[in-house]
Specification:
- It is built from no helices and 19 strands.
- By secondary structure, it is mainly beta.
- Strands 3-7-8-13-14-17-18-19 form an eight-stranded antiparallel beta barrel.
- The relative contact order is 0.20.
């Protein structure tokens, strides 16, 4: 027997056809007069992100060391009208998502979260492992940083390391979302909806690194994977157009980070936990 708390709400449209409106977690006196099932949606927006402290391991010929509890921040672009230029839309930290409603209140989607991760330089961190006087192939001199370390504190400066995923810390993901109407206007078109979701995907950074002065802005590569959860509000201005603000939390594992550009020899690895908040404008059709 299906209870009132779990069954779909059956409404009729003007033609008399039965509409199956998903049961909301909230009590609404007014219900939508249309179902979202079968609709697509697309949105574009911009984000801020915050990162937990991360251990970064660097490994290659003549070195294997880990920097502990590294602090990093995102890098915001100053917003301006110039970003309405289609050629510049992807410069700031942006979010692109396309989805499909498999039922009135559930959708599946694919998205690209373009965040940026920049290690603070200089900063003082703990270090373990070893660094030879010359590392990599061909050799890179390490100067006063050479040695064996067992948790000592070290001042990381630009002559030792710069490290950032600025083109960027990209999360290519698939998400499953649920929608619960909080409020529906008398027009039955305008509404405020709670969106929640879970995601999984690949981390595809373009990492810019200088290790003891040697490195490059590396090519994009699949460096690892991540999982995420999100919750946010979608305000439907009409049946199609909406604005959205969502907060996402995620954890990632990167095992194949490019560093000096000598990818057969040198690499890095790290786990990154993050909080991301984005604002987007979208259309459902």
């Amino acid at each position: 027997m299906i209870t009132e708390n779990t069954k779909a709400q059956d409404n009729s449209d003007q033609s008399g056809q039965t509409l199956h409106i998903g049961k909301s977690l909230f009590s609404n006196e007014i219900k939508r007069n249309f179902s979202r099932k079968g609709d697509f949606y697309v949105h574009w927006g911009y984000n801020h992100s915050w990162y937990g402290k991360s251990d970064i391991n660097f490994k290659g010929p003549g070195y294997d060391f880990t920097l502990k509890d590294v602090v990093a921040h995102d890098r915001q672009s100053k917003m301006g009208w110039e970003y309405l230029d289609p050629g510049k839309l992807s410069i700031p930290q942006y979010n692109l998502r396309v989805g499909y409603f498999i039922s009135d209140n559930y959708s599946i989607s694919i998205g690209w979260d373009h965040m940026k991760y920049v290690m603070d330089i200089p900063q003082r961190v703990s270090i373990t492992g070893y660094i030879d006087p010359e590392i990599s192939t061909p050799g890179i001199p390490t100067g006063d940083y050479a040695g064996t370390y067992n948790g000592e504190m070290i001042d990381v400066k630009a002559d030792m390391l710069t490290f950032e995923h600025t083109d960027g810390f990209n999360y290519a993901n698939i998400e499953v979302e649920r929608y619960d109407d909080i409020w529906v206007a008398p027009s039955q078109k305008t509404s405020l909806t709670l969106e929640t979701g879970l995601g999984v995907g690949l981390i595809v950074p373009r990492t810019d690194v200088r290790l003891f002065g040697v490195g490059q802005n590396n090519y994009f590569n699949v460096a690892g994977y991540g999982v995420s959860a999100k919750a946010g509000l979608k305000f439907y201005l009409t049946k199609g157009w909406y604005i959205q603000n969502t907060t996402k939390v995620g954890t990632t594992k990167l095992t194949r980070i490019h560093t000096t550009g000598r990818n057969d020899y040198d690499k890095a690895r790290q786990n990154i936990n993050y909080i991301e908040n984005f604002f987007a404008v979208g259309f459902q059709f």
